[in-house]
Amino acid sequence: MRNVGYPGRHRTTGVNRHDGSTGQRTGQALLLVRPRQPRPAIAPVATDTDEPAASSTPPKKISLADPAARWTAAPGGPAFFAYSTNYLIDLQAGIIVDVEATPANRSQEVESTRTMINRVEHQRDLKPRRLVGDTAYGTAALLGWMVEQKHIEPHVSVWDKTTRKDNTFSRSEFIWNEQANEYRCPAGNALRSDWRPFRNARTHVTKADTIVYRASQMDCDGCSMKDRCCPNTLFRKVVRSVHEAARDEARRIAATPEYKQSRRQRKKVEMLFAHLKRILKLDRLRLRGPSGAHDEFLMAATAQNLRRMAKWLTPEGKQANQAAT
Question: What is the pTM of this model?
Answer without folding.
Answer: 0.76
